[in-house]
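Exercise 3.2. Students should predict the tertiary structure of the chain below and write it as structure tokens, then compare their answer with the key that follows.

Predict this chain's 3D structure.
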Amino acid sequence: MAGDRLYSFQTGQKNEFQIVDYILFAGLLFCSAGIGLFYAIKDRQKSNTKDFLLAGGDMNPIPVALSLLASFMSAITLLGTPAEMYNYTTIYWWIGLGYFFVILGGAHVYMPVFYRLRVTSSYEYLEHRFGKVSRTIGAIIYVTQMTLYMSIVLYAPSLALNAVTGFTLWGSIWAVGLVCIFYTTIGGMKAVLWTDTFQVGMMMAGLLAVLIQGSIEVGGFAKAWERSVVSGRINFVDFDPDPAIRHSFWTCVVGGCFTWLSVYGANQAQIQRAVTCSTLKKAQIAYWLNWPGLCIILYICAMIGTVIYAFYETCDPKTYGLISASDQLLPLFVMDVLGHVPGIPGLFVSCLFSGALSTLSSGLNSIAAVLLEDVLRVFCVKRINSEVIATYASKIIALIFGFICLGLTYVASLLGGVLQAALALFGVIGGPLLGVFTLGMLFPWANEKGAVTGMLTSLVFMLWISVGYQIHKPKVATFSPISVEGCNWNLTTKVPPTTHSSLYLNTTTQSSLFVSTVNATLTTTADMVKEDSYYVMDRFYSLSYLWYSATAMIVVIAVGMLVSAITGFEKPSEMDPKLFCPIFDVFCPFLPEKIRKPLRFGVRYDEMKQCGDLELELQDGIEEKEEASPLQQKVVAEVNGDNASKAML
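Answer key:
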């Protein structure tokens, strides 16, 4: 360790905030509230929902990209990823590759459909495609998902602040929650986008400070990596396809892809930010700027986790009693290595709360949009008959749900590890929504009965699996080895001093012994339970949380198509082509026309003269036919009256 300072595992005491740290933390809240107040005053003459919910629809892609990044790269990622590296292995790094396919699908399959319809709420699409019932159900599911997710996001950094400073847990929750409610309610989408941009900068500054100083404390990142190699934490080669394995290459890349695709492909908060750009091309640029951003934050957090293990290699803080949950590892580490530098702990906690604030503001604004467009304007159209009333209604909705989220943070405190809890929520509730949008956009034969039945069946099935997982948790947790031989047990009576050999808690060895014992017991009854249905259900319950979203989507599509077949398929040739994605034209434009034509399944894409995304691309400078795709050439030609090009599609 660097210098002569003593650390928590040597003294048994945690460092606390100094006055300058509280000033920095208060400064974050003040700046965030100030941005909201600025846009409330600046746009006080604009009392319309387009400005409040879509920032006028003419935003630059850079702040939009940063807002997209901040919305779901929250305190959950900042706290959960280092804990993942400390407790398990580096196999989770592979999820960065999954992010690439997430952006590819989100930007080029889902976003063009939403953009050409120019929706404020993504669930407007479901009414166009499947009817009003599917729209209402989808909106209710989304509001439930985001309300629970925001509660987790608010609870996580508050717990961290409480763990490292002694600052009251519920006091921090209410302070941060009220500030977020304030600037989201009065400032609208512009306030959300620009505070997110400011908060991403805070997140990066805090993470880099922790990584750099932490590496210095352990003698360099290379040395920290070597220690992780010795402990078995460095593992990139687990290619086991078993979906019951918590993290493997396939689970992280494929399962992680579908988990995050439910965010970037079908989540109102992300779609609403993307359509604030003036053209589809700019919205896609904003999406693609997210991939390096997602990877940078992911890998910095993972590297911090590696450094944390090197620092606490000989004294596991949880076993020693310094913390009660792995999610508190990072704030404890910050106070250990940076507590002597006034202001830096405050910067770090500001970093955590920046992630929380960005997610809360995005969620509240999106909930306001969904309830306004999918509930009030559908069922109370006579009362919401002016833009002024609609804008005030949006603000009231954001205010009410802000307080609901504050109340639900108690539920979040019961969910365990925040990273797994949040991603599981994406799969259990977000997965069925991803499934119904995928069914609508890629399967033109599906009908309303199939979509509604598939969505509800998938939701019930995934809730059943997730509850079953909580009741029948996997018996063997593959934690990496930890040690407590370096703890100063003389300062505590929680665990009596013992020998070095008994203090080394190699949980992998313990797990192996446990597995051997369990296997020995099960061997005697294996023949009796082999065909038992309980065994099958136990396999379902053991499904990795990263496979939840993919499983949910498969159930929606399978049930949806089956019910559609029974009740009567739709005729693709009679459907509005704007509601579908010509996926083979998007990803296989090099194929000959004679091959691609039957792969459009009868959908009349050649009649998409009114495609909003293609027409808007004309405004964005696509005027030369040779620079456009075949479908774009078609639109350009028709707009210019060139009928000779009608044979192109």
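Discussion points: Residues 169-217 form the longest helix (49 residues). Residues 476-513 form one domain.
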